[in-house]
Specification:
alpha/beta; Rossmann fold; GMP Synthetase, Chain A, domain 3; 9-stranded mixed β-sheet; 17 helices; 32% helix; Mitochondrial_ACSM; acetate-CoA ligase activity; fatty acid ligase activity; Putative acyl-coenzyme A synthetase
Amino acid sequence: MTDAREEFRWEVPQHFSFARDVVDDLARHDRRALIFIDNDRSLRTYSFQDIALASQRYARVFAEDGIDRGDRVLVALPKRPAWIFTMLALDRIGAVAIPCAEQLRAKDLLYRANHADVRAIVACASNQSEIDEIRTGAVTCKQYYLSEADATGWERLDSRAERAQPLPGIDAASDEWSYIIYTSGTTKDPKGVVHDRAYSFAKRMQARYWLDCTPDDLVWSTAATGWAKSLWNVLLGPWSCGSAIVMHDGGFDPAERLDLIRDLGVTVLCQAPTEYRLEAKRDDLGSRWKLPQLRHCVSAGEPLNPEVIERWGDAFGLTIFDGYGQTENSLLIANLPGDEVRIGAMGRPTPGHDVAVVDEDGGLCATEIVGDIGLRGEPPTLFKGYLHDEEQTAATRRGEWYLTGDRARVDADGYFWFVGRADDVISSGAYRIGPFEVESALLEHPAVAESAVVGSPDADRGNIVKAFVVLRPGYSASDALVRELQEHCKRVTAPYKYPREIEFVGDLPKTRSGKIRRVELRERELDRKGRSASSGQV
């Protein structure tokens, strides 16, 4: 892979539409594009022709309702074909898609809707009630679309699309905005990460060199919709290389997942580290399942434990290739096919990315010296900035370097080794969780006077969310109150953010200026549980 890294050059076209230039081109041939498995295990296969036609009809519906170039549309759909049709349709008309997790609650959705000045919202039956709550507060939203369900005050998107005439779409410039993806922060509300159409084009690098996609592959990336990784590996990447993909609208069960990988004939697999960990815990991993068609496995979201990689290799004879990237960019560092994989290392920079470890002055750190991970230049994978936040955008720069917020060291052979996060964002399973959001939810409960949230080491998830809570007078610590606070957080914010552990304390460590010292609380947890399980890679 050395030659690819040295010879690679970005060749982004002046105009680009993923739907028109990739999907419609693939639709010229009768080829499989998608295998969709419903939560009841029913299966349906879509061709690229099916995908192209459906997304063109969705585009017509949006255009008929006045959604235009540059308008922002919040998409809160689960892992179902309607998510794909909607995202491609918005690409066709030049609208800006804001993918959001289906699990987000009213408070999260209202913030995003107003911060991004959304014109429309696309939702489903499971989150309809949450969005109904925000109608009066979402001041710029004009249209509400519901998929696969009927409700008063909502447009039935899929039914209208079935009757609509196809609309291929516009010819948009590559520097026009395409996505706003919200990512958690440590002390403020979530940040809106802006990407343009060149980002969509650039995802083929990741698919080609890391996922190793070919037109003969069936690729399953298990990422949930609403996250950057779902764009990387579910939608934009594999289809850029002509591969077919799998989408499963069911929860994760290790045995079912392995059954489906076998039965569907998946050849390329991208899973979250937590999923690999839980599968690797099974005593019958290598005896019950044989996966002869699976040829390549990757993982991203946080560091994968060496013992899991070894266990997977013993069971299936395959190495899991770790990768590192962010919502703000793409796959920056990875173990690529053809490289020597050093267990525990992040890998080396991917083609098209000039990545290094830099010091406080922006100079290159010497070998084995810990510093900040930086990206030099303006590759098309790099975000355009944080929406409405020039100060935070500028804070990511140190001279010619974009700083990822993570720290690492580089060995003599150019392999990066992750050290830790430079901020307080918690990486738990496949999720990136800002402590501020959880702390804010806790403070809405009448029993809570103060709270601080940190990541606590966990063997399966890398970290879990732990809350330190100071109670108001008149309230007493109890197991019942722990459960009450956990359920409160699930209602106020997305369920995956709730604190799995709560410790009641008399006070919180603070600086002289009154800022909570989360770093001190993290150190306590590391000392209490041991440092081997701790991780923070995004």
